[in-house]
Fold this sequence. Notes:
85% of the residues lie in helices and 0% in strands. It is an all-alpha fold and 72 residues long. Helix 1 runs antiparallel to helix 2. The longest helix has 34 residues. It comes from Bradyrhizobium diversitatis.
Amino acid sequence: xxxxxxxxxxxxxxxxxxxxxxxxxxxxxxxxxxxxxxxxxxxxxxxxxxxxxxxxxxxxxxxxxxxxxxxx
Length: 72
């Protein structure tokens, strides 16, 4: 049993790291798209980065996101 729990912890940690990496990459791609004058593409990459960030840490407080979105 402890072996299975350890494996799931390792998988969760790897998943967090992957999401963090995806978020960073998406933000870099958004910047490159901005530099190239591709505003729509930059927007999509920023949404992907937000999505990865939310999946990474936002699960603990699901009511946090709607408040952020409606505040502006």
